[in-house]
Amino acid sequence: xxxxxxxRRHLRRIAGVVPGTRIxxxxxxxxxxxxxxxxHYWWQAHxxxxxxxxxxxxPERRRAHAIGALVRGVRxxxxxxxxxxxxxxxxxxGLAVQRAGILAGRSGPSALAAITNRLHDxxxxxxxxxxxxxxxxxxxxAPANGPAAxxxxxxxxxxxxxxxxxxMAETLIDPDSGLVRDGVRVASDGSIRAVEPYIYTYCQGVHxxxxxxxxxxxxxxxxxxxxxxxxxxxxxxxxxxxGVLPGSGGGDGGLFAGITARYLADAALxxxxxxGAATRIVTAGATAVWNGRAEVRGGPVFSAEWGRPAMHPGRxxxxxxLSVQLSGWMLLEAAARLQRAG
Length: 342
Fold this sequence. Notes:
Blueprint: H1 2-10, E1 11-12, E2 23-24, H2 41-57, H3 61-77, H4 87-100, H5 108-122, E3 139-141, H6 142-154, H7 158-172, E4 183-186, E5 192-196, H8 201-217, H9 221-237, H10 256-270, H11 275-291, E6 294-296, E7 299-301, H12 322-340
Antiparallel strand pairs: 1-2, 3-4, 4-5, 6-7
InterPro entries: 6-hairpin_glycosidase_sf (IPR008928), Glyco_hydro_76 (IPR005198), MUG_Protein (IPR053169)
Protein name: Glycoside hydrolase
Pfam families: Glyco_hydro_76 (PF03663)
């Protein structure tokens, strides 16, 4: 039901007419035709990831064609390139294309090569290491480094992935809460000028995801220990008393909690030590978001804040954003994976 609602409302051909393409409309209901339409590259990556989740759950030829069309649509809409200024954007798309495999079509290998090469270029020793958030900037953050580490580990580049994950653990973990802070500002001499202390939900998820990948591939106990520590910190210092993760409004923030649910489900399925705690958070969120849904034309609408009832979509309402609806869909796919696994 979540998939049908998002696909019916948001998935369209580019400009409504370009054959062999799909792209995610960023809002529903649509704004007035005169309103500017921003390009949210990384939302499309998570739309692709959700469609792959659905294909793994219940394979369909129609959806398989739509996955390939969405990959083509992203490149076409992005002026024929897989890349932009933001290292986090391209890492997210790389993860989705990597998961898509042959469904991404002949362009998949070229996309992954371009993205992984650019991620290598983003690493410098300034700030002790790490990948920049975007080119020509002074900021290094968890949302760029976490997905990059996951992608590179899955690509067989474990040494580089481990260096990124170690930098995150050494630089971004808050010593008081054990949670991952947003990032650091790097001075021109390479020293850390300031730490951005904000605790965003998806920073925890990508740190966990990198640790889970490396615990399997690298085998060093530090990654298992870090994965256990971050799930414990999320349980006691981030989730509410029911185990529900907080939301971050609409816009980009709409994706944050859903991303973390994805990597919690991965952790539950791949690390027996985390199965109970990670499953509880995912299940609590899925129960809350489903019980709090709004039923409108075309199916459910999910809340931007899983712990409260959803508002009906409209101008200025976060539930209007594709990001928020993808997050709810992503959460339910994560819960379904855990249920299928028992």
